[in-house]
Amino acid sequence: MNFTVESDIGLKRTINEDRAAFFVRPDRFKLAILADGMGGHNAGDVASEMTITGMQQLFELVDSSQLATKQAQLEWLRDAVSHINQQIYQYSLTHENCQGMGTTMIAVLIDQQQCVISHVGDSRVYHFTNESVELVTSDHSYVNILLENGEISEEEAKIHPKRNFILKALGTEVSIEPDFYEITLTDDSHLLICSDGLSNKLTTEEMVEVVEMNISIQEKGRKFVQFANDRGGEDNISLILMTTKQEV
């Protein structure tokens, strides 16, 4: 599996509150994780950094026997996210400058071509194959609720005044219940994990164009960032792109 990780401050922000990382163990397990610190709260960068480092520590320590089945992987992810959520929440209570901080989170536990995904917030996962593209996750946002209920159109969602209002985030409450998804990668898969600094700037069709470019996966990652910045770069831009395909 080839992968690339990008995190860019964008053109308008003074600090990058996003974090993204890809961890590879000596056995068959890998972990991709992305966190977008909440820009409207204090210390979003602290929350996102705590998420990445905390998940890394738990991932490196867990015994492979505890990840032997898909159910075990789901349970480990649920417990790990709950633990990190409590850490961030307690930290915010004891550090005045961090009160109210939070972060989105995408964690993808990879077992060869099987992926178990834990999701909180409005960061996203897209799965691309030669035949199709699928938005795997569903945003935990006010606008997405309106969209799912048919109260607004997709075009209206893009300009809605509350489009950045998140209904669920890591660290803002004492407990959290993420959404979970499962994906089986094929021999032609690309998996894109990204913050809304990217997904708000490119259409799905434009993402497909980048994925299908005859360039290396690292160049594709840089193209995504470039396009988001070319369209204003008002937010931090972060992504993890991985593929099972043989790249150039």
Automatic annotation (TrEMBL):
InterPro entries for this protein: PP2C, PPM-type-like_dom_sf, PPM-type_phosphatase-like_dom
Domain PPM-type phosphatase: 2-244
Protein name, entry field: Stp1/IreP family PP2C-type Ser/Thr phosphatase
UniProt superkingdom: Bacteria
Chain coiled-coil ranges: none
A UniProt-annotated Pfam family: PP2C_2
